[in-house]
Write a sequence for this structure.
């Protein structure tokens, strides 16, 4: 996870490519294949390729936000507290 995070947040394209090559040459075959499929779309998710977009420092989208909400609801068993005045 740490290696992938360094690829994701690297500001240099060469550093990102070197890190991704390491991930694609992993000993675990399924992980390696998954990383190879992600490498073909690096320009969409790696920060070094997204510097020309006006993201205003926000590197998220609605799909990511909804998956975080589901994670918090299901995995962390978040309780939603309601007040009687809300009804």
């Amino acid at each position: 996870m740490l290696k992938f995070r360094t690829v994701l947040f690297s500001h240099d394209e060469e550093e990102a490519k070197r890190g991704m090559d390491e991930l694609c040459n992993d000993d675990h075959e399924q992980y390696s294949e998954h990383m190879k499929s992600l490498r073909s779309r690096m320009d969409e998710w790696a920060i070094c390729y997204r510097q020309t977009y006006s993201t205003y420092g926000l590197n998220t989208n609605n799909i990511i936000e909804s998956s975080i909400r589901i994670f918090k609801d299901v995995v962390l068993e978040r309780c939603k507290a309601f007040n009687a005045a809300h009804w």
About this structure: The mean pLDDT is 80.
